[in-house]
Amino acid sequence: MDAWQTVIVLTLMAGMAMPMGAWLARVECIPIDWLENELRHGIIAFGGGALLSAVALVLVPDSLPALGIATATGCFVAGGLAFMALDIALNRSGTSASQLAAMLADFVPEALALGAAFAHGSSGSLLLAGLMALQNLPEGFNAYHELRSTTPYSSRRLIGLFFAMAWLGPLAGLGGFLWLAPYPTAVAMIMLFAAGGILYSVFQDLAPQARLERHWGPPLGAVLGFALGLIGHMLLV
């Protein structure tokens, strides 16, 4: 398989985790209320852990060698500010799709970075692809619940929408592979921008939703999500 074909496969697999998460949310039916509530919050926390592992194990360490302190810090903070601005705009417009917007806002830059990193032969590209899938599955799960409860869209239409969005991954991945690979500084800036946005999303959207009064299982989901990223990192490095 050629390198560009591998990029398409990896980014598509990561993207297809979004409709898979939405499908799981659709078929989920646990008759015990407390257990269903615990599971949903645990999945949210798991996604937060996977996102943090992507930031800590791939996006930040792979980008810092190509940038100076001022540029690296500026890109990281700019990512957080951009996600905050998106949140504010969605809130003012009354759009109930913050989880969906956050999912796309980190998926597309990550796919760009993955394509460019794969062109350089970076071992972190495989880990990033796996972490993208790990985070997209619970994000798709949560975004489906958010949209299903606040919009008139049918389950079939929502899952079809998520399926269509999954193809943004190969498009962005090919763009990174073909056009960004000769510019490692630009790739590093995109990775840090995405990292700042992801960190904002974890604490703005995921962490508050993961908390349950007098329940201690959901935070363990965050630990497990990060642990899977750690295992992948140790196997590839």
UniProtKB/TrEMBL annotation:
TM ranges: 39-60, 67-91, 111-137, 158-180, 186-203, 215-236
UniProt key word DNA damage: no
Signal peptide feature range: none
Species of origin: Halomonas pelophila
Highest taxon listed in the record's lineage: Bacteria
Protein's name in the database: Divalent cation transporter
Keywords: Membrane, Transmembrane, Transmembrane helix
UniProt keyword Membrane, yes or no: yes
Organism ancestry: Bacteria, Pseudomonadati, Pseudomonadota, Gammaproteobacteria, Oceanospirillales
